[in-house]
C-alpha cells in the first residue's frame, strides 16, 4: 500500500540517504541524468537529523520502504548545509508580487527524489500535495532551485504549478528558482 506521510524514525532517514545515493548526479550515467533527472546535493545523517527536528520531511512509503521523499528546508536550517547558502543569499535579492521574498513565510524544498521503479505513477504530485496539506497554514509558498540541465524535474515542477522567478549560477551549477504560491 502506497501512503504519503512524514518522517518518524531514524530508519526512515537512513532510507532517504540510500535513495539519495542511488540518484546522485555523480552516481548515474549521462543517459540516466538526461532522461530520469538527478539529485545534486548530498545530505548526511547528522544534517537530516537536524533538519528533521525543525520540520519533518514528506515521504511516500510502499509498505515499510520509502520510495520517494521531499525534504523540508526551513530558513532556520540553512546553515546545516553550507553548499545551499548561495541559494538563500540569492533569495535575499528576489521578490514575489512586488514584495521581497523574506517578507513572506516560506520554506525551500531541500530535495525531491522518487525511486526509478515508481516514476510516472503520480508520486511527485502526491509528495507536493502532502507538503501543501501539512504546511499551507504555516507558509505562503514553497520555493526551490532546480538545475537548468534537469529537464525532467523542471517539467514536473511546471506541471505542479511552480513558476520560474529567477535563474542564477553559483559554484555548483546554473539554477532556475521556482515558486509554488499557496495563496
Rg: 15 Å
The number of E-state strands comes to 9
Strand order of the largest sheet: 1-2-3-6-7-9-8
Helicity range: 25-40%
Proper CATH architecture: 3-Layer(aba) Sandwich
Q: How many domains make up the coordinates? A: 1
CATH topology: Aminopeptidase
Instruction: Please state the overall shape, judged from the principal axes of the Cα atoms.
Output: globular
How far the N terminus sits from the C terminus, by CA atoms, comes to 32 Å
Walk me through this protein's architecture.
- By secondary structure, the protein is an alpha+beta fold.
- It has one domain (2-181): Gcn5-related N-acetyltransferase (GNAT) (Aminopeptidase, 3-Layer(aba) Sandwich), CATH 3.40.630.30.
- The protein is 33% helix and 30% strand.
- The protein is built from six helices and nine strands; from the N terminus they run βαααββαβββαβαββ.
- It has helices spanning 10-23, 30-36, 45-54, 85-91, 123-135, 151-160; strands at 2-6, 58-62, 65-73, 95-96, 99-100, 106-114, 141-147, 163-169, 174-181.
- β2 and β3 (65-73) form a beta hairpin.
Amino acid at each position: 500500500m502506497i501512503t504519503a506521510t512524514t518522517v518518524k524514525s531514524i530508519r526512515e532517514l537512513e532510507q532517504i540517504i540510500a535513495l539519495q545515493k542511488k540518484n546522485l548526479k555523480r552516481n548515474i550515467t549521462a543517459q540516466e541524468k538526461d532522461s530520469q533527472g538527478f539529485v545534486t546535493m548530498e545530505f548526511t545523517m547528522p544534517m537530516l537529523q537536524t533538519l528533521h527536528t525543525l520540520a519533518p520531511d514528506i515521504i511516500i512509503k510502499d509498505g515499510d520502504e520509502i520510495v520517494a521523499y521531499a525534504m523540508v528546508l526551513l530558513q532556520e536550517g540553512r546553515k546545516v548545509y553550507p553548499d545551499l547558502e548561495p541559494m538563500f543569499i540569492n533569495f535575499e535579492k528576489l521578490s514575489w508580487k512586488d514584495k521581497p521574498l523574506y517578507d513572506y513565510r516560506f520554506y525551500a524544498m531541500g530535495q525531491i527524489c522518487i525511486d526509478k521503479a515508481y516514476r510516472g505513477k503520480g508520486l511527485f504530485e502526491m509528495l507536493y500535495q502532502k507538503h501543501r496539506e501539512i504546511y499551507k497554514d504555516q507558509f505562503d509558498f514553497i520555493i526551490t532551485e532546480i538545475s537548468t540541465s534537469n529537464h525532467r524535474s523542471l517539467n514536473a515542477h511546471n506541471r505542479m504549478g511552480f513558476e520560474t522567478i529567477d535563474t542564477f549560477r553559483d559554484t555548483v551549477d546554473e539554477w532556475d528558482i521556482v515558486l509554488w504560491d499557496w495563496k
